[in-house]
Write a structure and sequence with these properties.
Blueprint: H1 2-19, H2 23-31, H3 37-44, E1 51-52, E2 70-77, E3 80-87, H4 98-114, E4 118-122, H5 132-149, E5 155-159, E6 162-164, H6 169-173, E7 176-180, E8 185-187, H7 191-198, H8 204-208, H9 210-216, E9 222-224, H10 227-240, H11 276-283, E10 290-292, E11 300-307, E12 310-317, H12 328-343, E13 348-354, H13 361-366, H14 368-381, E14 386-395, H15 396-401, E15 411-414, E16 419-421, H16 425-432, H17 434-439, H18 443-458, H19 461-466, E17 472-473, H20 479-488
Parallel strand pairs: 3-4, 4-5, 5-7, 6-8, 7-9, 12-13, 13-14, 14-15, 14-16, 15-17
Antiparallel strand pairs: 1-2, 2-3, 10-11, 11-12
The structure holds hexanoyl-coenzyme A.
Hexanoyl-coenzyme A binds next to α5 and β6.
Length: about 500
């Protein structure tokens, strides 16, 4: 039967597609601790939901290679559709040529049109050298689509092998980057080039491994130990995000918080640190907090949680690290997280305990003014419900920046331990009582007295509450209940901004 010949032809082609680079190369991949593209997709997607698309696309240069080194299609994760591509290092090193790129672009176009998330699994030798400028152009087309989809659909990239040179910029344009320790490497110029140009000796892992890009550069948002862990995390993130900017993030069944003694957690001494993550745990649904960029600029903690089942983005100063000051890296981390949450309809819960900006020439020359401005911009621009809790210190510009009422919080509450002031009691007393202190017979005792007086008068939440900058002073133990009441009544909030081409966020 003629038909059986045609079916046999399809079966033969499918077998090739299934084998990808062949058993030997797949084995080499396994020896390196890496899965093949198909194994990765099987772990990422719900069973039997993957529909491959573009499998028969071939390069115009060289011998045809299975799937041209990238498996593309649509599947489901947690029952919800997601467009995917997975580069396969076993086929021409997963390198990106014209047609390989076209396959990725086709998924980007469909994902944007359908309003579904896009996930990329990267494992590639970069631009396919034989394809020259066609390969470069392929990247350009991908970058353009990454940018156009930004803020419309969630885009996640998992780096599971090399990602070098300009190839790093597609991941960098996506919302979240996950890297696998030991196998993933991202850098613009590799160790050999750096050695030749600057003389610095650095290994590829030190330079661009998961931990380097997570903790030193802030390029990665998460590091995972294995392919399996990275893909499980990707599923978890997809489960938390809406499919697109017109939908809300999925609610979860409410759960009580961890039992934390919130009333006893913040030390009376304003100079004593504590772990703000304990406060987050005591406020949000048990086990719901997923920290983002943990290990980078830990003076601010950001992540997603559920509050009585409602997804929220949490931003908190961390008094344990650099006393909770805001610096350049923390500003970048915070501002980008706020904009990501705003784009995808996560209400913002901000927990404030910061003495201000980190002083120093490194900060000033590094542009803390420019970077710090991003925080103000991001909060003021955001239209999602915004609720702020002032835990303890909220001084000066940092008070304003951390989603104060003046900047646009819908509601601000303070704990009785809150100190809302232009600056801390010591420097304030030194300045405003300078003459009296100089004239005092015992300046040290006089200073202590004046500091106590200042603290009594200004370093409390009631001066701000008297002017309406704080809507309620709550007992720490009541915070969760208060937040649930406030947020649930803000979910229908509508706010719009003047129409414009786009703002000019300080970058
Ligand atoms: C074509 C490539 C390739 C590439 C790897 N291969 N990279 N083919 N173009 N860019 C092929 C190899 O020839 C080999 O084919 C197979 O993939 C596996 O590669 P190996 O070198 O054997 O693997 P390994 O030893 O693990 O080394 C991996 C590697 C190395 C470190 C990634 O392959 C490498 O350095 N590749 C070149 C990287 C590079 O310079 N790319 C261009 C970057 S510039 P066979 O048939 O032997 O198995 C760039 C710019 C993008 O990407 C710009 C965007 C704006």
């Amino acid at each position: 039967m003629a038909n059986s010949k045609k079916l046999a032809e399809l079966a033969r082609r499918r077998e090739q597609l299934f084998a990808m680079g062949g058993a030997e190369r797949v084995e080499r991949q396994h020896q390196m601790g890496k899965w093949s593209a198909r194994e990765r997709l099987a772990a990422l997607l719900d069973p039997d939901t993957f529909q491959e698309l573009g499998a028969h696309v071939e390069a115009r240069v060289g011998e045809p290679a299975p799937a041209d080194g990238v498996v593309t299609g649509v599947g489901r994760a947690g029952g919800r559709p997601v467009y995917v591509y997975a580069q396969d290092f076993t086929v021409v090193g997963g390198s990106l040529g014209e047609m390989h790129a076209k396959k990725i672009q086709a998924m980007q176009d469909l994902a944007l049109k359908a309003g579904c998330p896009m996930v990329g699994l990267n494992d590639s030798g970069g631009a396919r050298i034989q394809e020259g400028v066609d390969a470069l152009s392929g990247y350009g087309e991908i970058f353009r689509r990454n940018t156009h989809a930004s803020g419309v659909i969630p885009q996640i990239t998992v780096i599971m092998g090399p990602s070098a040179g300009g190839a790093v910029y597609s991941p960098a344009l996506t919302d979240l980057v996950i890297m696998v320790r030991g196998t993933a490497q991202m850098f613009i110029t590799g160790p050999q080039v750096i050695r030749a140009v600057t003389g610095e000796q650095v290994t590829a892992e030190e330079l661009g491994g998961a931990d380097a890009q997570l903790t030193r550069s802030g390029v990665a948002h998460f590091a995972a130990d294995t392919d399996a862990e990275a893909l499980a995390l990707t599923r978890e993130l997809l489960a938390r995000f809406p499919a697109n900017n017109l939908e809300d993030p999925p609610r979860q069944p409410p759960r009580p918080p961890e039992p934390v003694d919130l009333n006893g957690l913040v030390p009376d001494d304003p100079n004593k640190p504590y772990d703000v993550r304990r406060i987050i745990a005591g406020v949000v649904d048990r086990g719901s907090f997923l920290e983002c960029q943990a290990g980078y600029a830990d003076n601010v903690v950001v992540g997603w949680a559920h509050l009585d089942g409602q997804p929220v983005g949490v931003i908190a100063n961390q008094p344990r690290v650099l006393a909770g000051t805001l610096d350049i890296d923390a500003s970048d981390k915070l501002a980008r997280f706020v904009r990501l949450c705003d784009a995808f309809n996560f209400p913002l819960l901000t927990l404030v305990d910061t003495p201000g900006y980190l002083p120093g020439t490194a900060q000033e020359y590094g542009g803390i003014i420019r970077h710090g401005a991003k925080v103000l911009y991001a909060y003021a621009e955001a239209t999602v419900p915004k609720v702020t809790v002032i835990l303890r210190k909220a001084y000066g510009g940092a008070y304003l920046a951390m989603c104060s009422r003046s900047l646009g919080a819908d509601l601000a509450v303070a704990w009785p331990s809150a100190e809302i002031a232009v600056m801390g009691p010591e420097p304030a007393a030194n300045i405003i009582y300078r003459r009296e202190l100089e004239a005092a017979p015992d300046p040290a005792a006089a200073r202590r007295e004046k500091v106590a007086e200042y603290r009594e008068r200004f370093a409390n939440p009631y001066v701000a509450a008297a002017r309406g900058y704080v809507d309620a002073v709550v007992e720490p133990a009541e915070t969760r209940a208060a937040l649930i009441r406030m947020l649930s009544a803000l979910m229908s909030k509508r706010e719009s901004r003047p129409s414009k081409k786009h703002g000019n966020v300080p970058l």
